[in-house]
Amino acid sequence: MAHDSRREDYLRMSLRFALSLDGGDPAEAAREFASFGRRLARDRDSLPQSDADRAFHLVSLATELVDYRLPFAGDALAETLVARGRSLLDEALSLDPGCHDAARMRFSLGTASPEERGRFLAERADAVRGACEAERDRLCETLDEARRPLGANVAMRPWWRWLADQAECALICGRNHEAVDAAERLLASDQHDLSDARFTLAYALAKLEDEPALERLSARYPALAAPRADDDAWILLARIALAHKAYRLADARRLVERLLASYPGCAAVLIRQMEIADGRFARIRVPAYGEDELIVAVSEGVVLLQEGMERTGKGVFGAWLARTVSELDPEAARAVAATTGEKDGGAEGAIGR
Amino acid sequence: MNAWDELVARCARRRNEKIGPLSDEAYAELVLAVRQNPVDFVDAAPEQALLLLARALDAYRASLGHDDLLDDEAFEAERSRRLAALRAECERAAAVDPGCLDARLTTLLASELDPDPLLDALLELERDGSLRELPEGDAWDDVLCRPRLRLRAAVARACLDGARFRMAASAAASVVDATLDDPLGARHTHMLACARLEDEAALGALEARWSGRESAWSHLARVLLLYKLGRLTAARRALRGYDQLVSGGAYALLRPVMVEPYLPDRPDVPACGFEEAMMAVREAEPIITDVPEFIAWCQGHDWLEASARAFAEKSDLDW
Predict the structure, then answer these.
(1) How far apart are CA A17 and CA A39, in angstroms?
(2) Which of A183, A71, A173, A189 is nearest to A130 (CA)?
(3) Tell me: the pLDDT tens digits for A189-237?
(4) Do A319 and B198 touch (CB under 8 A)?
(5) Nearest C-alpha of chain B: how many angstroms from A320?
(6) What's the pLDDT tens digit per position in B156-174?
(7) Least confident among A237-246, B27-36, B206-215
(8) What separation in angstroms does the CA of B259 have from each of B80, B88, B289?
């Protein structure tokens, strides 16, 4: 699933618009609504909106810049993108100091330290949850029954992203129980796992080498993630890591074959193990089972891949994975070897939309 | 490993089997005689191999500590030469007696393999059918069981280096459980694994069991555990404890140095001394690098920096 700031912007505006039409003539309302999409795209200011809606719109613009364009920008452009992203977020915060996404993203752009980010997120977590819940309750009072679930869902999303960020930060900082706790809190609140918190959870459980808990997470997939099965790159990499850690190398190799079957043609990604910046708004949105999804999963997986005292710097598990995939797909290994050094594993058109 | 002591014990035991059984008193005298001149009592392949190993380890240890004046390149060359010489002697010993587990273990450890190939080779060695079953009671008492225990302890350490923390914990626990008071210090490996796995109950149980025998490992494991659990006030207190109770601990943590591989087991050093601290920090390295801002957090405590600097000045070390 994943969070989509543009879609969310649309949802917020359409809910607001629908509220403004309530109580009027239904036929008139239907006609008005037919023009909503066009007006949102071309004449946004003619639509009813609060400062919070305006702020969120700026967040969605900033997201485009820092999450989707920045990873492909050269150094010069990167600075511009970050500066523009910052000023959009600052503006969002001046419109709506309660814009939690803007505050979170702004802080994350200002520091390279996941510890500091984690502290920032932890200090404000209760207040953010409280504010989102209050907004949800307020919206639910005003919305009719049909729109209530969506309204409630949209109201809670900033909190969900907050928790997802906390879980990811904790994982990076090597606080794996904390990552598990944050992910579980998120799953309790976001029951259909819009945030894909189960991915972070799978890695944290692998770090804790808690195989029974990882199996339980697999069993929860139908309830959480339908229609996605438990064959995404995260849960598979977590399982492979556990098999490798338990020195069940034949099992681990079989699981690698399964991963390659889930992501056909993507062996090179597992050999290169490129690191990319995490999305600031949320985990970036990429097509399921595509090369980009595997790139994101591998990049988040460096916490597993790069552990241990291994001389090449790939990490014990990372080196084993690259070796195993190279054996299973020698063609891909040759292709990687041919391009390595040339551009040092550039993103090659991967991850964009 | 004190190979000479074990050689004496084994020679006395073999002689006793041949001419005995001797009374306790006579046996004690036999041991004394062997100790005077162990070489005279070496008359079978296992002891011949152990004798070769004992001499090789002596030569290796004697050649350590002569490199202070060498530049990096010369040091590397000298070091490779030293390790290669040890490996060659160990291979000679293993040729005399293929059952000389310590020689084979030392060869592997002196090869400086990456954790995966090392573990693979160690497990292969363990699977070797000729390994002696561990007895009930304290397996350390049986000198013939010691090689096997050293091998297990090496497996545990290779697992820790290879980021296999649960496996490290269980291998270490099996060594600890086979002996009365863990002469190989496998509990240290176990404690570090517990810290990495954020298993507070397990670390607490180990601390309770070994209470009164704290070490650089136990103090460091506690700091790491609390830090990983996000309990920073408690972690700071534990860091303070580590600093105060482990001599040179702050320096070892903030200025980690290369520690030579254990050949075939950890050298005996005083508890909570500087050498122990260097070993503990080296063994904890995979865990420390997994908490990327841990060292920065440590450095943020002025008293720790001050303590490290004071230790450096006192000990004539670089700062």
Answers:
(1) 11
(2) A189
(3) 999 999 999 999 999 999 999 999 999 999 999 988 767 899 999 999 9
(4) no
(5) 8
(6) 999 999 999 999 999 999 9
(7) B27-36
(8) 14, 22, 16
Quote the CA–CA distance of A308 and A31 in Å, as a whole number. 63
Pairwise CB contact (< 8 Å): A176 & B198: yes
Burial class (CB in 10 A: 0-12, 13-18, 19+), A328: middle
Is the reported ipTM for this assembly greater than 0.90? Answer: yes
- In whole angstroms, how far apart are CA A45 and each of A11, A35, A85, A92, A101? 16, 14, 21, 16, 22
Nearest to B106 by CA among B94, B117, B90: B90
Residues in chain A: 353
CB-neighbour burial class of residue B14 (10 A; exposed 0-12, middle 13-18, buried 19+): middle
Grouping H, G, I as helix, E, B as strand and the rest as coil, residue A324 is helix
Beta-carbon count within 10 A of B188 CB: 30
Q: Chain B interface, mutation test: which of A117, A244, A247, A311, most B Cβ atoms within 10 Å?
A: A247
Neighbour-count burial for B114-130, b at 16+ CB within 10 Å, e otherwise: bbbebbbbbeebeeeee
Residue B211, pLDDT above cutoff 90: yes
| Alpha-carbon gap: B39 to the closest alpha carbon of chain A (Å) | 40
Q: How far is CA B251 from the centre of its chain?
A: 21
- Give the count of beta carbons closer than 10 Å to the beta carbon of residue A249: 14
Question: Under a CB-based contact definition with an 8 Å cutoff, are residues B131 and B177 in contact?
Answer: no
- Report CA A303 to chain centroid distance, whole Å: 16
What is the separation of C-alpha B212 from the centre of its chain, rounded to a whole number of angstroms? 20
Binning chain A into helix, strand and coil, the percentages to the nearest 5 are: 70, 0, 30
Q: Which two tokens stand for residue B194?
A: 């517990």
Residue pair A92/A62 in contact (Cβ under 8 Å)? The answer is yes
Domain boundaries, chain B: 1-64+74-100, 113-180, 205-318
**Percent helix, strand, coil in chain B (nearest 5)?**
70, 0, 30
Bigger pLDDT: B26 vs A251: A251
Token readout for B250 is: 């702050």
Asked if B33 contacts B52 with a C-beta cutoff of 8 angstroms, the reply is no
B285 contacts A114? CB cut-off 8 A:
no
Task: Considering only the beta carbons, identify the residue of A208, A303, A309 that sits closest to B161.
Answer: A309
The Cα–Cα gap between A269 and B152 comes to: 37
pLDDT of residue A349: 40
